[in-house]
Amino acid sequence: MPITFNVIPRRNPQSPNDPPKYYANVVGNGVTTLDDLAKYASTVSTVSKADILAVLESTFSKIAEDVGDGKIVYVGEYFTLQAGGSSEGKTTPDEVNASTITAVKTIFRPGKLIKDALKLATFQKKS
């Protein structure tokens, strides 16, 4: 199934009087839930959906806990997750402390399997 995109106009903020240029904007097309993953896994294995859900829930809980503890979590050849953030700039190292951290985010790095899947992806304009 192709990745869907729509077309959006964007103006150049440095030249606001220039006509806009048009760009492809990739949009989500449906969702896959944890339940969907478990249902699929149960169809391609001998393990029940309930057992798979239990394993996935415990695995993702551990991933969240470890990322929250500052660990880099490698999930095979699928992806890597870790915490990242932004802070206020200070003039001396002694002024930098935990209160200068202004935002925390999750850094997601796709692994080989996801990168390869995206290389093979096709695209379709949303109608």
From TrEMBL:
UniProtKB keywords: DNA-binding
Any Pfam family: HU-HIG
SUPFAM superfamilies tied to this protein: IHF-like DNA-binding proteins (SSF47729)
InterPro entries from the UniProt entry: HU-HIG, IHF-like_DNA-bd_dom_sf
Keyword DNA-binding in record: yes
Domain of life the protein comes from: Bacteria
An MF annotation (GO) of this entry: DNA binding
Domain called HU: residue spans: 1-125
DNA-binding as UniProt keyword: yes
Protein's name in the database: DNA-binding protein
Organism from which the protein derives: Chryseobacterium caseinilyticum
